[in-house]
Structure prediction request, 71 residues.
Amino acid sequence: PRMNGQEFARALARQYPVHASIVVLTAAADPRRLATQIEAIGWLAKPFEIDQLIAAVHRALATSASTSALS
Prediction:
């Protein structure tokens, strides 16, 4: 890989600042801190259940839609 997940998330946010809604999926010891560092709108610690992932994606989409409506 050319970059890790953190580097990818930062590059994505730089390239698409309005459209990038990131949910971190990580095995990091402190997933909340990691999500905050890259300005993600959510996070899930591995291992997680598929229902948790679906709920996180729904929250991200809802957050993104409400933010877009305010712009």
User: Anything to note?
Assistant: The chain has a mean pLDDT of 86. Helices lie at 5-15, 31-37, 50-70. The two ends are 35 Å apart (CA to CA). The beta strands are 23-26, 42-45.
